[in-house]
Structure formats: C-alpha cells, structure tokens
Amino acid sequence: MAPLITLGVTLIIIFFILIVFLNFFPFGLWITALFSGVRVSILTLVGMRFRRVRPSKIVDPMIKATKAGLDLSIDKLEAHYLAGGNIDSVVDALIAAQRANITLEFEQAAAIDLAGRDVLEAVQVSVNPKVIETPLISAVAKDGIELRVKARVTVRANIERLVGGAGEETIIARVGEGIVTTVGSSESHKEVLENPDKISKTVLDKGLDSGTAFEILSIDIADVDVGRNIGAQLQTDQAEADKKIAQAKAEERRAMAIAAEQEMRSRVVEMKAKVVEAESKVPLAIATAFENGKLGVMDYYNMKNVMADTDMRNAISQNSVNSNKKE
C-alpha cells in the first residue's frame, strides 16, 4: 500500500513540475512559429514570461505579418505591447496598407495606435472614403429668410496627419461655419434654393481640411428646407417694443396731466377760500361805515337792492343755460 501512495505522490509532483515547465517553456507555440517561418528562440519566449508578456500575443501577430511578407522584429512588437498598444490592430493595418499600396511604416502605425486612434480603421477609410453627415444647420440669408441645410462630407483619412490632426468634430464644425457664411452672404434665400451647389463649391474652396486627419473629397448638400422669416419676426418684435415704449410715454404724459389738473383744482379751492374770507369782511366794513357815519341807511338799502337784482339776473341766466343743455 505504501509503495502505491509514494508512486501516486511522485506522479502528481511530476505532473505539477511538467505543467510549470510547459508554462514557462511554451514548446507548442515555439513549434508553431518554427513551422510558420518565424525565427524565435525558446529562451526569448521564456524571457517574455518573466517580462509578464503573453508570448502568443507577440508570436501570433508575428506569424501573420511574416505570412503577409512584412519584415518585422519580435523586439518591436514586444516593445509596442509593453507600451500598451494593440499589436493585432497595427499588424492588420500594415497588411491592409501593403495590399492597397499605401506607404505605412511600423513606427508610424504604432504612433497612431498609441495616440488612441484605430489605425486599421484609418487605413480602411484611406482606401474606402467615409461619409460624414452634418446635423441640420440653420442659416439666415440677407432677406431675413431662414434656411436649414444638411450636408454630406466625403473624407479620406490622411495617414501622415493622423497623429496630431483634428477629428470629425472639427470637420463638421468647419463645414457648418462655411454653410452659415455662404447662406448669410446671399442676397436672397432663393439664390441658395436655385443653386445649392454654390454652398458646396464655396465651402470646398476654403480648405477646411487644413490641420485635420482627413482630406475632404467632396461636400454634397443633402437637404435644404425653408424655415422662419427671421427678418419679419425681428421687425415685429421691434414694432412691439416701440409700441410698449410709446404706451409708457403716453401713460407718463397722462399722469403728468392728471397731476397738473389736481394742482389747478387745489388752487381754485384756495382762491375760493380767499374770496370767502374777503366776503366775510364786508359786513364788518359796513358796520364800521355805519359807526363812522360814512354810510347812511338809504345807501345801505340801495346796495341791498342792487345785490338782490344781481342775484336774480344770475339765477335767470343759469336757468337759460340749463334749458339750452336739455334741448
């Protein structure tokens, strides 16, 4: 029984050692590379293990590149992998560029990949141009009519400017600015509707792809819609504002007139008060005249008759005025 246990333990230890050995010495991958024409030593693969690099991540793209006729080195691929790059994408891009007769070096492809751009997609866009559709852009012609324009921009990736070049957002922004400028400089919106290619020609001549990662091939106007009459709306808003200003000034003048009227009424009341005050002194003056002998009894009664006659005339004239108003 004891020899069987010892034999089992020995087999387990040998199996464990074999797994560890094969883990650090990937003979299967080495044999695959050897028969694929990739010259790489087993010690190089072991060194990758110690550098925390999966050998298959390096060897498989190397096999693919060798079969495609690319001259790459294991050290370059490993250095790019350690820098955080995507080796499969870089190798695929190099193969695609070679098939399309596009000059693309490994260092350039690696730099594009490390810059955060999809280098394979860039090569594909360089071979097969991409269409970028702008959002609906609102622009106003000189006659005040709003036009809503949508354009399709056909671009091709510029490999040399992928590193440091602006992206699609810049292309869309520049095309939108060019559309607004072109429509805004038109005397009438009808000119734009009759010749929409005027927009694309004017915008294309501005060299909008300068400093970007793309080369603009064409700008096509997909749709032009007539929007609001901005000029009429602005005039209406201005007229409404002028109306409110005039109403405010009229209200101010009315308030001033009412204040002046109230002031005049207070002055009339004040003058009437003075008249009443003056009339209250008349009896005192008559009494003083009697005492001093300057006014006789007959003079007094004559004055009373004159006053009564005056009151009667005033009453008759007031009745005549009232009867005329009723008629």
Helix content: 55-70%
Instruction: Count the beta strands.
Output: 4
Silhouette: rod-shaped
Question: What order do the helices and strands follow?
Answer: HHHHHHHHEEEHHHEHH
Rounded average pLDDT: 78
How many separate helices? 13
Strand count, sense and barrel status of the largest sheet are:
4 strands, antiparallel
- How far apart are the termini? 149 Å
Our Rg estimate from Cα atoms comes to: 52 Å
- Please indicate the percent range of residues in DSSP E strands (runs of 2 or more): 5-15%
> Are there runs of 5+ residues with pLDDT below 50, and where?
none
**Strand pairing plus helix content: what structural class?**
alpha+beta
Transmembrane segments: 7-24
Subunit structure: Homooligomerizes.
Subcellular location: Cell membrane; Membrane raft
Protein name: Flotillin-like protein FloA
Helix and strand layout, with pairings?
Layout lengths: L1 H23 L2 H9 L6 H9 L4 H13 L6 H9 L4 H13 L6 H9 L4 H9 L2 E4 L3 E4 L4 E13 L10 H17 L4 H6 L2 H8 L9 E16 H63 L4 H30 L1
Antiparallel strand pairs: 1-3, 2-3, 3-4
Helix pairs in contact: 4-5, 4-6, 6-7, 6-8, 9-11
Keywords: Cell membrane, Membrane, Transmembrane, Transmembrane helix
Subunit structure: Homooligomerizes.
Subcellular location: Cell membrane; Membrane raft
